[in-house]
Amino acid sequence: MNKIQRIHFFEVSLYAIVLITALCVPFFSGIFTNAGIKAVLTDWVRLSPFVAVFLINNYLLVPKLLFKEKYPIYFLTCILMVIAVVYLSDLLFDLTRSVRAPFDHMHDSGPPPDKMFPPAGRPPRHDGFGPNKPLHHGFNFGLAIVSFLLIGFNTGIKSFVRWNEERVRQAERERHYLYTELAFLKHQISPHFLMNTLNNIHALIDIDTEEAKDAVIKLSRLMRYLLYEADIQKVSLKKEVEFIESYIELMRLRYDENTLTVETEYPADTEAITVPSFLFLSFIENAFKYGVDLHVHSLIQIRFVRENDRLVFTVRNNKSGIVFDMGEASGIGLENVRKRLDLIYKNDYILEIRSSDDAYEIYLKIPV
User: pTM of the prediction?
Assistant: First the structure.
C-alpha cells in the first residue's frame, strides 16, 4: 500500500467510524430496548437526509465545485441543500412518528403510548401516515446547524486528504526529477574527454604498454560507475572518491608533471559517509576545463573535510587565460547544481564561488 492509498484508507476509515457511530446511537440511547427494532429503523430513515448531504458534498460539490474554485456556486448549493434537508427531515419525522410514538410518549405529557386508537367521541391523534396537519412548523435551525457542521466536517477532511495527496505527489515529482537528472549525469563527462583519453591511451600503447593497460582499467572503472551507480540516489563517499581518482588519473594523461599538479585530501572514514552520486563531478571537471594553462604550471586542489555532521568540499584552481564561467560549466551549469542541492537538502547547505587575485575556489558544505 503506497502513501496515497494509505491516505484514502484513512479517509474511508474515518467516514466509516462516524457512520457506524451514528447508526449505533439508537442502541446506546435505549430506543431499541424500549421501542424495538422498528424505532431503530425509523431513526435510520430520519438519518438518511444527512447521509445524502454527506454523499452529495463528498462526491459532487467538493471535487466538482470547491476544488475547481467555483466558490460562490459551491456555497449557494450548500445553502439550498441544507434548506431542502431541513424540510425533508421534518417531513420524515412526521411520517415516521407513529412508529416512534411509544418511545416518544415516554418523554411526553400527552396520551399514553398504547392509546393508538382513542375512545369514541374523542378526536383521533394523528401520529402516522395520513392527511393530518404536520406536527412541526417553521424552519428548524437546529437541523440546519447540524447539516452545516456535517458539511464543514466533510469538507475539512476532503481538503486535508487532498493537501496530503498533493504533498505526496510533489515529493514523487521531486524524486523523479532527481532520478532524471542522475540519468542525465551518466552522460555528464564530455565526449571530448573520452575521445582525448582514448587517443592518449592509443599513444601510450607504443610508449608504455603497462601504463596504457592501467589507463584502460581506470577508464573501465569510470564507465562502470557511470552506468551502474547513477541510478542510486546516494552512495558512499569511498565510491565517489574512487570515481574522482579515476577521473583525475585519466585527465593527467593529457598533461605532464611540469604542466599540472593535482593535490587531493580525503577524510579517513569515507566508507561511513554517504553523498549524492555525481554531485562533485561538475566542479572538478570545471576546474580542469578552466584551471589549466599550458604556458604556466597549474595547480588544482581538491579537498574533502568532515566537520562534525557536515562535509566540506572545496576545489581550487589557479586562474588561467580562459574566462571562468560556472553558468556554462560542465554541461548542467551552476543553476542546475543548485536546484539539485535544493531538492536534496532544501536550505540546509552552503554553496559559494570564491575568487581571489590568482585563483577560483568552489566551497560546498552539506550535511552527512
Answer: 0.53
